[in-house]
Amino acid sequence: MTKTELLNKTACSGEERLLLARVLDKLELTRTRSIPSYSGFLSPQEQASVQALLNACGHPRSVFWGGFQGAERAVCMFLPDWAEEADFLGGEDCPIRALRACFTGASLSHRDFLGAVLGLGLDREKIGDLLVGDGHCDLLILAEIQDFLLLHLNQAGRTRLTLSPLPLEQAAPPALRVKVIRDTVSSLRLDAAAASGFSLSRGKAADLIASGRFQLNHRECLKPDRSVAEGDVLTCRGLGKCVIKEVGGPSKKGRIMLVLERYV
Fold first, then answer.
1. Strand pairing partners for 182?
2. What is the mean pLDDT of the chain?
3. What angle do CA 249, 253, 256 make, to 5 degrees?
4. Dihedral, CA atoms, 128, 91, 53, 226, nearest 10 degrees?
5. Measured between alpha carbons, how far is 211 from 228 in angstroms, rounded to an integer?
6. 250 sits in which H/E element
């Protein structure tokens, strides 16, 4: 299948086509020159798009990595046969670096740090997760911008920052807060699962899905009757994210038991 045929098959928009074309260029670089290559940081939706492309390409050797297990934003790395995956997940060859920005006397948010970094003229794809803690923020970034940030990122809003390199394994992801929901549904439809996960009426959930507010496994889904399964991720703009953790057998009344985790 040619590059054009792959893009015609997998891209749903002009913006997505440009993203996937860049990823294909990285894959071709690894195939022709036998060297590692990698994309910029990808959002969960972009990762889903790239994974669909890789499936269509015959599953080339690749790995998504954001600097720590469970990172939301991740780069897609293509590895030649000679390369060891472990060297690119945490070793010297890893394209990801961590910086710690320390501050005092202020309460800063993810938005404050993202605005400060983007305000320096950097592209979003060069920045991974921003892990805001008590008095510090750990920034996951591409190695190519590390020196630039060390030199220029000295404040967020009006708050002064002290920036220093941080070993990648010491980056501190915040503890996830989830609410466990146990419910029964009449069928494994997206609108039924969404109603349980986000405490909505089924009609309201169906309306939100049809309006384009919902994603199933980080891909837009406009069909309330789409089937869901254990492990699926449901995301709604303005409401957040939940995961179907377990699909149980039917209850005495013939309803299907679900266990969901909603991120709060």
1. 259
2. 93
3. 30
4. -60
5. 19
6. strand 240-250
| pLDDT tens figures, 63-87 | 999 999 889 999 999 999 988 888 7
Contact assessment for residue 233 and residue 241, using Cβ atoms and an 8 Å cutoff: yes
Whether the pLDDT of residue 19 is over 90: the answer is: yes
Do residues 184 and 252 touch, judged by C-beta distance below 8 A? no
3-state DSSP assignment of residue 70: coil
pLDDT at 105: 82
- Six token digits for residue 182: 């146990």
Residue type, 43: S
Phi–psi pair at 136, nearest 5 degrees: -155, 165
How far is the C-alpha of 82 from the C-alpha of 87, rounded, in Å?
Answer: 11
The whole model's pTM is what?
0.84
Which segments within 54-187 are labelled E, that is strand?
62-65, 75-78, 96-102, 127-132, 136-142, 155-156, 159-160, 162-166, 178-185
